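seq as requested:
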Amino acid sequence: MVKPKLLIVGDSFSANTTKLSWVAQLDYEVTNLSSAGSSEYRILKNLQTQNLLNFDKIIIVHTSPNRIYVPFNPLHQHTDTHKNCDLIYQDVKAFADTQVFAKNVTWWFENIFDLSSAIDMHQLIIDKLFSITNNTNCLHLTFFNIQHPLIYNLYHIWEKYPGDINHLTEQGNSKVKLFIEEYL
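struct tokens:
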């Protein structure tokens, strides 16, 4: 029997594909373009690389409005999991004492970054993602505490089951899998 084709595009909450990950537990032929540290803009650009008509279903895992796109992040240039990581304050702050780049970006976040405009830009990109997926069978999720009437918020699962597989425990991944099966 041929499995239906599923496209997943998102951040690190959907990037892990090890056998205990909710991504690997789904009974689909999965194309996963998710990557750790993806901004909403990177999610949009990854989605735009695909012909959506090639997929029976699509899942978009939305990220934090605080994650800022950069074409190259020198903090993670030598890592496999975060080589396409965008900027977020907590990440660069952790490197601020040892790397000039991180010190400068931390200063930028603390003195120039405007959360209100980042939230507005995030919403505009979400609107674009909805527009692109309007005529598809698409499920929009987030694990961040973002309130949007058309995005299923799974923050409560992450909050209750934090872990190392897509930021969730094995039980948390099972809960996400069951949720997705119900809505796909």
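The chain has one domain: 5-86+116-183.
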